[in-house]
């Protein structure tokens, strides 16, 4: 039963109907409106009317007041924003209030209002505000809807008296930094939160909260009148704020709920609501998101200027010159400032000099508002003549060659649009989306992340993260060559065609214009051309095959090229998404590097010498484990050379120690241990072989939330399967030592008895991202160069049960799997299987297998 009195039922139904009709009409207008301020104000007024009517229906005492707080307090509501209200009580206690207030709130919910409500006295409000900056902010824009005007005036006066503008400024700036850190300090996520991300609506609201608290004004026009921003900046702020508000409003309406994240599956309908149409090279969503990124970039830049100007007015005693750096620049409290407003007009070279000084001057942590404003106003100076100026070319190379600060300088150059105006092709990829399901940044931000990763290899404080990379770069002559290659490796994305080939031309032109000649210039161009090659070889080819290593060594040619490509590859993969890189991929790349380095050093890629080397190393490890001399022979005599080439010495020793007493065992053996190379579980299965064994094991892993990263399958000469799996749990923070025993017991039980495993999983549902950006399933089956094995490459959207579906098809056709390399790239998989070539030479069987595989991986 409703808690609202019977006499209120009829008015409640009437009020609900009125509000529903009014809101529906406004939502329909929100769907296409570009200027939403009036609509947001109308929705707030309609909400006021409903709340006022509910208040009057419940006959609350005249001594109370109903206030709108938060965004609602500003007198504006987005279509599905929360409605935050405060029932304000006098400090003098009143009897029988609780039940009546509960009736009011219940009635408001019955009307369809999604409330965020609080009930406090004036003193309680002030106490909460003193302890919590969020409450202090919410109350800053409090507005009376109905009730006692005297009580509200008393509250407003006491709140103002208690408010410390300086402390409020400091708290809000700290809060902003923490919020930005949650979004990796970038607005360029491919699914940004348009309210909370850097450059979003919250940054604009924060500025107005600070200026309102300080008494500087509560609108861009008032801030312009006070001299905190110029007329042009005020116009830019209004324009970008209007776009962000319209974007958020349409996102709410199209989603049918409060939705502030521009998820992929909503980007296209929102773009179409703005009138964007797909072109031959750009989706409608890409055009909209590019506009969003440029808007967020402008907001970030203008917000930085404003916050510095506000700080200078709030803390005037700390805004003086700290030291003179040159006749062009001074330092003001850690910020680099121009000595005169027209310095860039008089001396255009000073634009790049500012970023060089920023790197070179200890204690300087950014550019001042005056400098940022001057750069913003000097955009027309950065033309073709400016780009071709030899002094500017020298300055740009000096920026790349500094021992510290390169990443910060280039990010700041991108934020201020200087980088895109100096490198015009870089400007083309600012805000360029990537629809490959594993990049989580726009192209320009990915490039800067790659450069950051390379720089971190060279910084001593980060040497513990990737010690091998740090060791290599420490001995790499002229590492700035790598930074140039990083800048150009993806610069041609979005143009159509092979971006590696197109990027080569850009890199070659840059090197010629900037005096990067001879070996260094050739290396830059070669790295741009080959920047995907090493990851493809490591993840998609059988690197246990000496011929694979030999061909890769011939392509690389020199140790310097190998090291450069390895460092760029690691930095590139790490710069796509935090989820893409893992220690297993790191091991694949490092193993390929070391094997190739040996060949470049004169070692012959000979399978038999490699076999002997690994066996000797494994024997040395077995002696440390007190395994009897010669005990390994019973097992090793049953294994072919492929087994020893596909496993390293440590794995050979571990498997031998487990199995040497059980070579002829009639019962299955399953052993699991935390992987020595990172967060994963290594599982050994030794059992009499059967046709669907691999598929059944994959089914078990899938049902238990274990994703297969790598599988190395061997069949002994006496008919046993010796399979080694590397699996990772789909949930984070799993302790693999704790689940190792469980996997051993359960998988052994499945393999015992009649030898059957659980039936395979049904086709799992695609993730949201995969449904939005489906990958065309591809299957490629071809013989290797010697015809001994067949290589199966599968590309598809990832989903539960996918690996089992593939394995099942192979099992049904009696196709043996020698190894499987599972490469998950975000929502896409690129799996490579090395298959036993027996029978696959029949072209009809090949076609049948490929056809059934395509059917199996299709959604």
TrEMBL record:
Protein role: Modifies, by uridylylation and deuridylylation, the PII regulatory proteins (GlnB and homologs), in response to the nitrogen status of the cell that GlnD senses through the glutamine level. Under low glutamine levels, catalyzes the conversion of the PII proteins and UTP to PII-UMP and PPi, while under higher glutamine levels, GlnD hydrolyzes PII-UMP to PII and UMP (deuridylylation). Thus, controls uridylylation state and activity of the PII proteins, and plays an important role in the regulation of nitrogen fixation and metabolism.
SMART domains on file: HDc (SM00471)
Cofactor(s) the protein requires to work: Mg(2+)
EC nos: 2.7.7.59, 3.1.4.-
NCBIfam families to which the protein is assigned, alphabetical: PRK03059.1, UTase_glnD
GO molecular function, one term: [protein-PII] uridylyltransferase activity
Key word Chloroplast present: no
Protein name: Bifunctional uridylyltransferase/uridylyl-removing enzyme
GO terms under biological process: nitrogen fixation; regulation of nitrogen utilization
UniProt cross-references to Pfam families, sorted A to Z: GlnD_UR_UTase (PF08335), HD (PF01966), NTP_transf_2 (PF01909)
HAMAP family per record: PII_uridylyl_transf
Region (Uridylyltransferase): 1-324
Residue span, HD domain: 443-565
Domain of life: Bacteria
Keywords: Hydrolase, Magnesium, Multifunctional enzyme, Nitrogen fixation, Nucleotidyltransferase, Repeat, Transferase
Family in the record: Belongs to the GlnD family.
Catalytic activity: [protein-PII]-uridylyl-L-tyrosine + H2O = [protein-PII]-L-tyrosine + UMP + H(+); [protein-PII]-L-tyrosine + UTP = [protein-PII]-uridylyl-L-tyrosine + diphosphate
InterPro entries assigned: ACT-like_dom_sf, ACT_dom, HD/PDEase_dom, HD_domain, NT_sf, PII_UdlTrfase/GS_AdlTrfase, Polymerase_NTP_transf_dom, UTase/UR
The encoding gene: glnD
């Amino acid at each position: 039963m409703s808690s609202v009195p019977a006499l209120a039922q009829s008015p409640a139904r009437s009020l609900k109907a009125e509000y529903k009709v009014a809101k529906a009409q406004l939502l329909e207008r929100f769907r296409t409106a570009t200027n939403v301020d009036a609509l947001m104000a109308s929705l707030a007024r309609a909400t006021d009317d409903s709340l006022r009517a509910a208040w009057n229906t419940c006959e609350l005492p005249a001594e109370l007041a109903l206030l709108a707080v938060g965004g609602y307090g500003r007198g504006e509501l987005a279509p599905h924003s929360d409605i935050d209200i405060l029932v304000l009580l006098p400090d003098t206690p009143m009897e029988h209030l609780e039940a009546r207030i509960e009736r009011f709130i219940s009635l408001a919910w019955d009307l369809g209002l999604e409330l965020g409500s609080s009930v406090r006295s004036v003193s309680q409000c002030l106490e909460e505000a003193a302890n919590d900056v969020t409450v202090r902010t919410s109350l800053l824009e409090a507005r009376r809807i109905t009730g006692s005007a005297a009580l509200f005036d008393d509250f407003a006066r006491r709140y103002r008296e208690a408010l410390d503008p300086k402390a409020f400024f400091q708290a809000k700036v700290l809060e902003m930094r923490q919020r930005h850190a949650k979004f990796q300090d970038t607005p360029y996520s491919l699914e940004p939160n348009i309210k909370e991300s850097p450059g979003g609506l919250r940054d604009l609201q924060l500025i107005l909260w600070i200026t309102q608290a300080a008494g500087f004004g509560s609108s861009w026009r008032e801030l312009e009148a006070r001299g905190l921003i110029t007329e042009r900046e005020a116009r830019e702020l209004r324009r970008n704020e209007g776009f962000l508000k319209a974007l958020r409003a349409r996102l709410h309406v199209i989603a049918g709920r409060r939705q502030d994240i521009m998820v992929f599956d909503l980007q296209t309908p929102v773009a179409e609501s703005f009138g964007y149409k797909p072109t031959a090279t750009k989706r409608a969503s890409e055009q909209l998101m590019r506009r969003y990124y440029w808007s967020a970039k402008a907001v970030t830049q203008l917000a930085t200027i404003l916050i510095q100007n506000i700080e200078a007015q709030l803390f005037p005693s700390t805004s003086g010159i700290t030291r003179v750096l040159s006749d062009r620049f001074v330092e003001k409290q850690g910020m680099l400032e121009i000595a005169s407003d027209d310095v860039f007009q008089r001396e255009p070279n000073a634009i790049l000099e500012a970023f060089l000084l920023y790197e070179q001057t200890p204690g300087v942590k950014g550019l001042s508002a005056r400098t940022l404003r001057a750069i913003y106003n000097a955009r027309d100076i950065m033309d073709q003549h400016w780009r071709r100026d030899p002094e500017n070319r020298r300055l740009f190379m000096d920026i790349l060659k500094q021992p510290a600060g390169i990443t910060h300088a280039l990010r700041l150059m991108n934020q201020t649009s200087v980088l895109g105006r100096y490198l015009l092709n870089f400007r083309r990829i600012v805000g360029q989306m990537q629809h490959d399901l594993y990049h989580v940044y726009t192209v320009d931000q990915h490039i800067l992340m790659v450069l950051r990763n390379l720089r971190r290899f060279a910084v001593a404080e980060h040497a513990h993260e990737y010690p091998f990379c740090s060791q290599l770069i420490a001995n790499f002559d002229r590492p700035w060559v790598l930074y140039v290659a990083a800048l150009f490796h993806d610069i041609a994305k979005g143009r159509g065609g092979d971006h590696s080939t197109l990027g080569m031309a850009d890199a070659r032109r840059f090197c010629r214009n900037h005096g990067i000649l001879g070996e260094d210039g050739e290396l830059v161009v070669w790295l741009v051309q080959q920047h995907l090659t090493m990851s493809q070889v490591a993840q998609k080819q059988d690197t246990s095959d000496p011929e694979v290593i030999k061909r890769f060594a011939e392509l690389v040619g020199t140790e310097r090229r190998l090291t450069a490509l390895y460092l760029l590859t690691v930095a590139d993969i790490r710069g796509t998404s935090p989820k893409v890189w893992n220690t297993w991929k790191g091991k694949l790349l490092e193993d390929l590097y070391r094997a190739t380095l040996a060949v470049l050093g004169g070692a012959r890629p000979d399978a038999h010498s490699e076999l002997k080397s690994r066996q000797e190393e494994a024997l040395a490890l077995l002696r440390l484990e007190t395994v009897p001399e010669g005990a390994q022979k019973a097992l090793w005599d049953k294994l072919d050379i492929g087994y020893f080439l596909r496993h390293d010495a440590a794995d050979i020793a571990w498997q031998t120690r487990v199995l040497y007493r059980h070579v002829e065992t009639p019962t299955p053996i399953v052993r699991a241990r935390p992987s020595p190379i990172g967060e994963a579980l290594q599982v050994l299965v030794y059992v009499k072989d059967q046709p669907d064994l691999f598929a059944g094991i994959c089914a078990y892993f899938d049902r238990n939330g274990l994703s297969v990263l790598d599988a190395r399958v061997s069949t002994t000469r006496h008919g046993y399967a010796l399979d080694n799996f590397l699996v990772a749990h789909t949930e984070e923070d799993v302790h693999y030592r704790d689940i190792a025993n469980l996997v051993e017991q359960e998988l052994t039980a499945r393999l015992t008895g009649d030898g059957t495993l659980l039936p395979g999983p049904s086709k799992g549902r695609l993730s949201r991202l995969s449904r939005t950006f489906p990958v065309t399933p591809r299957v490629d089956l071809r013989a290797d160069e010697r015809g001994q094995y067949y290589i199966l490459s599968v590309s598809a959207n990832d989903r539960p049960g996918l690996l089992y579906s593939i394995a099942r098809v192979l099992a049904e056709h009696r196709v043996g799997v020698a190894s499987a390399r599972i490469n998950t790239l975000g929502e896409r998989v690129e799996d490579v299987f090395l298959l036993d070539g027996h029978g696959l030479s029949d072209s009809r069987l090949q076609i049948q297998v490929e056809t059934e595989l395509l059917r199996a991986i299709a959604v």
